[in-house]
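Honest question from a wet-lab person: if I give you the sequences of every part of a complex, can you actually get the arrangement of the whole thing, not just the pieces? Trying it with mine:
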Amino acid sequence: MTYSKRFDGRKFDEVRELEAKVGIIKRAAGSAMFRMGKTVAIAAVYGPRELFPSFLQDPKKGKLKCIYDLLSFSVTERKRPGPSRRSTEISMVTVDALEPVLDLSKFAYTGIDIYVYITQADAGTRTAGINAASLALADAGIPMKDLISSVAVGKISDKICVDLTKEEEDHPEGATDLPVAMGTRTGQVTLLQMDGNMSQEEIKEALKMAKKACEGIKEVQVKALKDKYKEALK
Amino acid sequence: MVNILVKEREIVVPGQELADGMDYLPSEGAFREGDKIISSKLGLFNLDGRLIKVIPLGGKYIPKKNDTVIGRVTDVGFSGWRVDFGWAFNMNVSLKEGSRDFIPNDADLSQYYAPGDLVVAKIIKVMSSKIIDASLKMPGCRKLGTGRLIEVESSRVPRIIGKQGSMISMIKDATGCNVVVGQNGLVWIAGTDPENERKSEETIRKIENEAHSEGLTDKISAYLNVKPREIINERESNENDIQ
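Yes, you can. This is the full assembly:
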């Protein structure tokens, strides 16, 4: 049996409904919300500010730090608050996904903190978190070479799909998850993880679909950034 | 082929292509990659001659040389003061730059500025983001007394001051308050009665909220019911001519 029709009726290369909002947290230097279907991520950027422990201070450039976590009510079974093996890993890959496009040379010795919290989880939380964090960094006025857009592609049974939901990830015939983050202007891939099995051809196909989906996501991100100031500029 | 790809005062986002070709130069908020000039910030596109600039719409204050800032003295040492001005690191005011008065060798430095004092300082050197030197003896620098301190977005400070200080002098004229605006987004207001101080604060908040709309000076002069200073002078000279 193959996966011929998606559970929520989407096309195989179609992302879920997207929504983005910039400037949601007043006291933060920059903040954003990003929603992909039922997955909602909020991100706040603080700094540049003094960096502790001080041995992390770099005289050449600022240091980017990230804390990612699922809020306890975001998943069906209560998630114990605080860091875990999973959230530590995702915090690290979020930093690695965003740092290549940032220019932190003007912020020597300082630290920039990103806090990513998932208020509602339905698969693809790290990609939603990266999308929100990218917007929050732009909102905070940190110099960036490109915006980062991120989406998960995967294989359900034998079909390559974009932006999997939790239901699809738990498909009885097995599903592979391949989160991708990229700067769409340069095509630079900054995050590529895989959970499951895929052949080389399938990965190539999946990356092509991810690139197309990221371009769509970027449009939503650009619109959200411009919308924040549209009213004020009228 | 030389092309400007966006309109003047259009909102641009990081990574957006602004111009194509080698005839233009990237300035603040933009960089060159190959033939293209690309924005690195969220801001307004601005073309000044051959310079392409992106005026940032938000973000934290970044210290620059010659900025006048408001800060709070945090520490008094043997050879100067440390001042917190809202940046990641405090700035340093050396003994030499502390006061226009002569400071004797064995003086108690907290007699001049004690921890907790509010000061207006001018940044004279930014060596790195960690080592910032400021002066308290440049024109306009002083210790601030009682008043209220409010925080505004540092990217809106140029609008609060206005062209040649037109906006800020209008507020001063209308309310009779003494207002000091720091480039770091701190504003100190002192007036004879709280009502005037409140009015000043409200006006500054209004400017902050409408900072990017056009014709702001007229709006604020209508709101405060005063004429901008230049116009008052013109009227006076016209009247003198008639007489």
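Two things worth pointing out. The mean pLDDT of chain A is 95. The helical segments of chain A are 85-98, 125-139, 166-169, 200-233.
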